[in-house]
């Protein structure tokens, strides 16, 4: 199980209101106690922070707001002493408009080798005033921005599938592949255990950059759905090469290096292509995260993943939350003010289901506390470029990125020392007092203990190792599957029901009497005999 650390919101060691690498290092004992196998760090590279670090200006350094390379080395060493692996977030689809190569491209002019590293093109129309094609960016607006040439005249356009501050690399230029080779090796030489690959279905665009049939599809879905901009066949050659680089390092010392991709594609069958034996080790399977709270919907997405993805020999990589999505507690129906309720009960049950599935599990910081989405942040504190480009609060991501509450009864809840009189970079609501980690650790009924107990069982029970699952016959609204003699069952309905199989309850997501599966509750049983399908 890998724990996603959103660095700027995890723990602030300097008092400036922004989390940092030293704060992550200070939190490692907490993560060790929880039982994680590794951490994935959100981008901490030098960046103007137009998209919170996913606009990278220098891939081989640390932004001073987060620390420096020496602090990074201390973090890796401390994590390894505790048996925790460290994955970095790498962003190969685009960089920052302040990256030296992009600044060089602007100064070099049309037809230059510097511009060939990106997607520069002449505009359409008699004066070139219209974009080269009709694509729209995922964060709203056209996917093209016109530049002013060195002589001061309006000039070419460049492609950016997210924001104008994030120009897309042109991976058809061999210089880009060579540069990312250098970047990978820089961090692997510093001891990292692998990479989470941002926009892993991106990189290559259709070579002719034609108009799209549905140009606003990406912006409407806020997902990688434009078939001309994403999921091009050449991208698989990149992952084969990156896999070979990782295996080169593994051959040196026997320590596996992991590649996990953010892969947004139309189907589990397409997803499976990214985790073939010579490509990415893992790729996030987002269909479980996106499934409505319904037994049939969950069974469908799990079955498809086990059939198409696990069939490649890879593990399915399950996830219920991340830094781009509304938190599960709210997504499943939790009121905006937090507290216990239907959303919390469903999120607990979904967590226990996820931890029982064959494969890898990733959790997002605060998930183990049962944090709800902060849905009432005032407009003047919002930082998400989606909001600033569209004027809409729909699908903005600030609400799941509010800094973690660690202790106390009022903000900053132990997140920052406040030595510089700085407040957390996003305001924490008063009700976060109910979710502070010190309170969660002391309450054996908390989300934290459910995750900790589930992870301990997950690592100790051979039934929960690699393998398959068998679906069991159940009453309506109940989902149950067996892993040898261990059964996981979830009641998606509201009425209490008898347990699907006799046996000994090991762990439940909520209070329910033995032998009864309460509504919006999950449980694990060990049976005396192998249950029938």
UniProtKB/TrEMBL annotation:
Keyword Ligase in record: no
Keyword annotations: Hydrolase
A Pfam match: Alpha-amylase
Molecular function terms from GO: hydrolase activity
UniProt xrefs under CDD domains: AmyAc_OligoGlu_TS
Domain Glycosyl hydrolase family 13 catalytic: 4-401
SMART domains: Aamy (SM00642)
Family matches, as PANTHER family: ALPHA-AMYLASE FAMILY MEMBER, NEUTRAL AND BASIC AMINO ACID TRANSPORT PROTEIN RBAT
Protein family membership: Belongs to the glycosyl hydrolase 13 family.
Record-given protein name: Glycoside hydrolase family 13 protein
Record organism: Streptomyces thermoalcalitolerans
